[in-house]
Design brief:
With 289 residues, this protein is α+β, with helices and mostly antiparallel strands. It has helices spanning 3-50, 57-83, 89-106, 108-123, 163-168, 194-206, 241-261, and strands at 131-134, 137-144, 148-152, 158-162, 172-173, 179-188, 218-224, 229-238. The protein folds into 3 domains: 10-91, no CATH class; 120-173, SH3 type barrels (Roll), CATH 2.30.30; 179-261, Alpha-Beta Plaits. The chain contains 7 helices and 8 strands; from the N terminus they run H-H-H-H-E-E-E-E-H-E-E-H-E-E-H. Strand 3 (148-152) and strand 4 form a beta hairpin.
Length: 289
Amino acid sequence: MDYVATLQAQLHAMALGFVAQLPNLAFALIAILVTWIAARFAVRIADLLVARTDLRPSLKELLDTLVRVAIWTAGLLFAAMLVMPGLTPASLLAGLGIGAVAIGFAFQDIFENFLAGVLIMARRKMQIGDLVECEGITGRVEHITLRETHVRALSNELTIVPNAVLFKNPVRIVTDEERRRYELVVGVSYDADLDRTAEVLRRAVEKVASVDQARGVEIYATTFGPSAIDFLVRWWAGSTPRAGFESRDRVVRAVRRALADARIEIPYPQMTHSFREPVQVQVRTGEKD
């Protein structure tokens, strides 16, 4: 058997096949070039349309990427069918579907965070700069990406939170509004006049500069405590952490000063012991040496 002749015949057949495919390859290259041009124009059109909306920059980039991927996928599939006429759209789509399922199972967590990021950005409730609380994480939102959110703690540590955590669990947005309500419990002696005490507390809180006078101050006698009658004091001030600390500090100082001036006692915790039977008390007048 002449192996050299067989090899030459095979190479000759491959060369003839390659030459026969040259027109198809040329058409495929033209299809890829057209795809590249179409993708660029489609992204520009998408940018012009999205520019009129208030979408976040990350969502705009995602939209550009999706448009680009969709056009390139269609163009490459068309080019593949030109090079290999035996391929059909049904067989290509079936192969892509099987591959998509396999990739989906392999990168389930990544896709979960990705979709959560898209939904978080779309609903626009959580903004950059908001103070949030979720699953023991408290801090200010610095950056939102398609996969994760950067939360800067008040003590300046950075926590990178997967978007799925923020999407699946309740998120408390502390700074959603410019004003929020604060509460303080104040205990006064049982001997105090409750109406007069309430008025003293109200005047003291209303004089604090950081208190929102338009929303008013609420004073309620709420509980008979072990050693005092408890008043619940409510007022409105800025929602930022600094504004909250400063407002509470000034209110506590003002309440303490007003009660002292009005001679209303803030009692220390006291306890009264009752015994069912007489208690024997032994008094020692002196000790022997």
